[in-house]
């Protein structure tokens, strides 16, 4: 089973991102665009695991959620990671970095305690909206057309997600979710 730990997004946020994604598609020759239901923010990619490792990940998620209070993130600018002549297009995070970093560091600590290796790449918070995208125009021009509003994202739970293919379609399924401490 292939898994990762994520912050799931509300339907409103997913709808908003999907509308921006449609604009990007108009300016793209081709690309592998994320499905609306798969939009998320990855906290930690884990990879292939067995049942015993799943239980240890759940323990780390529980311990992390129990010491972190809910907080808000804010959508930031459109960005990309270059991959030869293609791009991975994403929306970044504008506010909430301190709380997100604390959540990530606590999760890392708890995963290491459960026998997992520390993440080498660190945290680069983003919501992927397309992979292997070939653009028709310069990225800066497209960025101006898309105009990302600083939408708020409530981070009140952590989810362990399975990445699988169902009828050939990449699907992310929450297999375990733990609520964080609430202010409400």
UniProtKB/TrEMBL annotation:
Which EC class does it fall in? hydrolase
Q: Where is this motif: HXTX 1?
A: 40-43
Entry annotation: catalytic residues: 40, 126
Give the UniProt keywords, A-Z.
Hydrolase, Ligase
Q: Give the location of motif HXTX 2 in residue numbers.
A: 126-129
Give the EC number.
Answer: 3.1.4.58
Name the chemical reaction catalysed here.
a 3'-end 2',3'-cyclophospho-ribonucleotide-RNA + H2O = a 3'-end 2'-phospho-ribonucleotide-RNA + H(+)
Q: Where is the signal peptide?
A: none
What PANTHER family does this protein's entry cite? RNA 2',3'-CYCLIC PHOSPHODIESTERASE
Q: Which organism is it from?
A: Caminicella sporogenes DSM 14501
**Entry annotated with the keyword Glycoprotein:** no
Q: Of which family is this protein a member?
A: Belongs to the 2H phosphoesterase superfamily. ThpR family.
Summarizing the function annotation, the protein's role is: Hydrolyzes RNA 2',3'-cyclic phosphodiester to an RNA 2'-phosphomonoester.
- Report whether Ligase shows up as a keyword of the record: yes
Q: Which domain of life is it from?
A: Bacteria
The protein's name is RNA 2',3'-cyclic phosphodiesterase
Q: InterPro entries from the entry? A: Cyclic_Pdiesterase, RNA_CPDase
Q: Which GO terms describe its molecular function?
A: 2',3'-cyclic-nucleotide 3'-phosphodiesterase activity; ligase activity; RNA 2',3'-cyclic 3'-phosphodiesterase activity
């Amino acid at each position: 089973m292939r898994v990762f730990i994520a912050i799931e997004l509300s339907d409103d946020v997913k709808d908003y991102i999907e509308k921006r994604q449609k604009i990007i598609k108009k300016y793209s020759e081709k690309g592998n665009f994320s499905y609306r239901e798969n939009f998320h923010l990855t906290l930690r990619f884990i990879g292939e695991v067995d049942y015993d490792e799943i239980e240890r990940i759940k323990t780390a998620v529980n311990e992390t959620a129990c010491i972190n209070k809910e907080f808000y993130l804010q959508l930031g600018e459109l960005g990309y990671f270059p991959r030869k002549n293609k791009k991975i297009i994403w929306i970044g995070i504008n506010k909430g970095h301190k709380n997100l970093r604390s959540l990530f560091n606590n999760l890392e600590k708890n995963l290491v305690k459960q026998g997992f290796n520390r993440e080498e790449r660190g945290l680069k918070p983003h919501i992927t909206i397309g992979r292997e995208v070939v653009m028709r125009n310069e990225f800066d021009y497209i960025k101006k057309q898309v105009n990302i509003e600083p939408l708020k994202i409530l981070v009140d739970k952590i989810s362990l997600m399975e990445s699988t293919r169902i009828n050939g379609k990449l699907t992310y399924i929450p297999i375990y979710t733990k609520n964080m401490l609430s202010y409400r």
